[in-house]
Amino acid sequence: MLSEPSPGERLAAALRRSPIYVDPSIASALPGAERRRLAARFAKAPAPVYVVLVPLVTGGTWADADQLASVVHDRLGRDGIFITLREGGEDLTAREWGGDHQARDAAWAVSLDRAMDDTPLAARLSRVADLIISGTGKQEYDRISAEIDRRHKARQGAASRTGEPRSGRADDDDGGLALPLGAGAAGLAVVGVGGFLLWRRRRMASVRREGGGLLMPRTVFATALRANEDQLREQASREVIAFGELLDETTVPTTGERARALMTGALDAYQAAGKTLDAARGVPDLAGVLVLLDQGRDAFASAQAVANGDPEIPPVPLCFFNPLHGDAATRIAWRPVGSRKSLRVRACRPCARAVRGKEAPDVLMDRRDGRDVPYYEADPAESVWAETGYGQLRDDLVHRVLRGDATPR
Questions:
Q1: pLDDT, tens only, 225-283
Q2: Which residues, 6 or more positions from 407, have their beta carbon under 8 angstroms from its beta carbon?
Q3: What parts of the sequence cross the membrane (predicted)?
């Protein structure tokens, strides 16, 4: 009996018939006439272009856009440019095999371009085609990035001249900016513009963090949060092995001082993650494995970027209250129970909203003396996670793990 074709094989078969595949669930977003017009437009590109429009959802068939593109490329057996949707949204991204025609830069540029906001999918794909055909993808990406930076600096300068509180970091916001007391309609307008610019910067930072597939996929944390301890241990083990294989296969040159330092940091984090996994006795330790791997992959991706002459990729820590929540997109002031001192920590947006609403965030618990307590309430002498806030309260987490600051139980 013949086996059923895999999802990747089905997509590859569809692309052999037409270079544009649209999942039936979003077929109305790109009608047949638009597909034919785009196919003719992409035919003028300097390399074959394949468009695979499949929604990427948590728990779905595909972990992320890079995995989708990689599998389809492998099953199709043809090099070229593969354009897909980004995880959890309608933004476009691209990967290329067999050349460098700035396809990824072209897709990033369109995703960041304010002029393309709220435009139909066909218009965004057509713009990507224009940039690939003209070979100006990187030029346009650099232009738009610089424009966003200029707007943000102008907004900050205006705030300093008017006395408005400045929000100097893109991660100081959780989707809406807090208004100063007494702000009226004018204040609302200014904050609205500022919030929009900060959102654009967060969006740009998210795009930049793709890191050529070197960074830990954010879907890892969505899976980890739902896992029991045994499942989490298996997942942590797989991630350690995957990072080790990535390091073994690397060809990152380390002749430059900064690239060498970043690679050393990546290797140290990998060693610390393996050491933690071997001794892990509970969920807090297994969460620590993922934190260490995330730090290591950040350093590795930056080493690759620096070696290529590009800027370092900004590291994004994981949620202070529970690293399994994923990215800590928001910086907040938080005061532990029983303490008069506030700490500046970074948290996921749901936890940040809870703290600002004077509600309890969803905290990772640790078992101590027969009872469950928030991990950060454990004795710092007995928990490197409590002592460092999983690396947010101190920047020497990897060093402490390597020197043996394990958690005695």
A1: 788 899 999 999 999 998 998 888 878 887 788 988 999 999 999 999 999 999 998 99
A2: 281, 284, 285, 378, 382, 383, 384, 385
A3: 177-199
